[in-house]
């Protein structure tokens, strides 16, 4: 792994919520630190209620991680466009984030340690 990115097991139990709904809770989250950016919590896909997420056409590229697919969160009260991302086929240096989802720090989306 390059020195630019560090991945470690996130300590404790983590939760992601949107629109009053709990989208997931896990004790198996990963914390990814990249350069000077704030650390990002990645949730195992199996710990997320994927019924709330709809894949979108948005794809972004990171030279250190690869191509990220994006998901909108749809719940009873709202849709939050492109609120989550996942590296379906990350580059080998960060292969451990495959099968994980991360969420943008939006007002309608809360990621927190509980």
TrEMBL record:
Which InterPro entries does UniProt cross-reference here?
DUF427, DUF427_sf
User: DUF427 domain spans which residues?
Assistant: 16-105
At the top level of its lineage, which domain of life is listed? Bacteria
Residue ranges of the TM segments: none
Please identify the protein, giving its name as recorded: DUF427 domain-containing protein
Organism name: Ruegeria marisrubri
């Amino acid at each position: 792994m390059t020195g630019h990115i560090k991945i470690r097991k996130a300590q404790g139990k983590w939760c992601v919520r949107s629109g009053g709904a709990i989208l997931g809770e896990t004790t198996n989250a990963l914390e990814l630190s990249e350069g000077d950016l704030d650390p990002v919590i990645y949730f195992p896909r199996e710990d997320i209620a994927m019924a709330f997420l709809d894949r979108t056409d948005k794809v972004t590229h990171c030279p250190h991680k690869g191509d990220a697919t994006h998901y909108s969160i749809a719940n009873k009260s709202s849709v939050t466009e492109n609120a989550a991302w996942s590296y379906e086929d990350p580059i080998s240096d960060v292969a451990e984030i495959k099968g994980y989802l991360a969420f943008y720090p939006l007002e309608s989306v809360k990621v927190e340690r509980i």
